[in-house]
Design brief:
Radius of gyration: 24 Å
Distance between the termini: 20 Å
Largest sheet: none
Oligomer: single chain
Number of domains: 2
Mean pLDDT: 88
Number of helices: 13
Structural class: mainly alpha
């Protein structure tokens, strides 16, 4: 930074500096290829939704797997957006802070810019899901439209992961460490979400993960408890030729269910006996999940501010 620009920075206010840095990030989006996160996120979303999106919001198993995979896509997008944005220019930030830069202006500019980026990724993800023929619920839980509720959840999950990565970028000293830390953060989100792995005594940890609240919210909005379950039927089909005293009773029962057109009712009955209270389509399930994500955003922001405000003491 030149001497004249340093002198000018000393006499600018918080809001003015916010505008300077926000415009800077927009220029970086265009001229330093920061826009690449959009097509990369689109490719990842496409790969996942075309594999697991066919039964999402149609069966309980499809909803559980699909929403968890979609949440992981959002977390990955958020991490990738901002994991390097601060640490890659740490020396510049340190120099400008000594010249009068407001750390809050810098962080807030990042947050607004990243929010716009996450919003664009949300629109792209919803578009890809539509192309993949994902059957969104028509009615929402919080708003009148299911796709709007799902869009809000996707945006919150992506943005929370984004601000978490921004916090990490403020804490670490270079991009190498940031990219080393990111896989561990992603693995933590996958394992400790509580959706696929039994955590036992560590079950309380799931409330600290973005993926837990994202999946719970999407399942509730997606009407999980109102959907049929196919696991029981598929398991019985696997054992249909099992013989007991020379007879195949399961085969006869299964054939009778199909012959009498009772398969759909059987699947619905299975679903009614496998409901999850956490996935009930009520505001009491969705709003706390959204609130938990907003609380995480606030905590990550405070930690990022504290970490970067002490950058002058950094001897690294």
């Amino acid at each position: 930074m030149t001497e004249s620009s340093t002198e000018k920075l000393q006499y600018t206010g918080w809001l003015y500096q916010f505008g300077i840095y926000y415009r800077k990030f927009l220029r970086m989006f265009v001229y330093q290829s920061d826009w690449v996160v959009l097509p990369i996120g689109a490719v990842i979303a496409a790969l996942v939704t075309f594999v697991v999106g066919g039964n999402m919001f149609l069966t309980q198993e499809g909803t559980t797997m699909g929403t968890f995979a979609l949440t992981c896509v959002c977390v990955w997008n958020g991490f990738f957006n901002s994991i390097q944005v601060v640490c890659r220019e740490r020396d510049i930030v340190k120099k400008e802070h000594r010249a009068g830069m407001h750390i809050t202006s810098y962080i807030m500019a990042h947050m607004v810019y990243q929010l716009i980026l996450c919003f664009l990724q949300t629109l792209i993800t919803l578009l890809i899901c539509s192309i993949a023929d994902v059957h969104f619920p028509k009615a929402g839980v919080i708003t009148p439209w299911g796709i709007v509720d799902i869009g809000i959840t996707i945006l919150l999950v992506t943005y929370t992961a984004d601000i978490m990565a921004l916090m990490v970028s403020c804490l670490v000293k270079n991009t190498t460490i940031a990219m080393t830390v990111m896989p561990f953060l992603l693995i933590y989100q996958l394992i400790f979400s509580g959706n696929f792995f039994a955590l036992g005594a560590a079950d309380f940890i799931k409330v600290t993960t973005i993926s837990h609240w994202g999946t719970d919210s999407l399942c509730a909005i997606g009407r999980y408890n109102e959907q049929p379950m196919v696991t029981l039927w598929n398991t019985l089909v696997q054992f249909k030729n099992a013989e007991f005293y020379g007879e195949k009773p399961l085969l006869y029962v299964l054939q009778s269910v199909e012959k009498n057109g009772m398969l759909d009712e059987f699947l619905k009955w299975s679903g009614r006996n496998c409901v999850n209270p956490a996935y009930a389509s009520t505001p009491e399930n969705v709003l706390p999940a959204w609130g938990a994500l907003l609380l995480m955003i606030a905590i990550f922001t405070v930690v990022a501010l504290i970490a970067l405000k002490s950058i002058d003491k950094d001897k690294r």
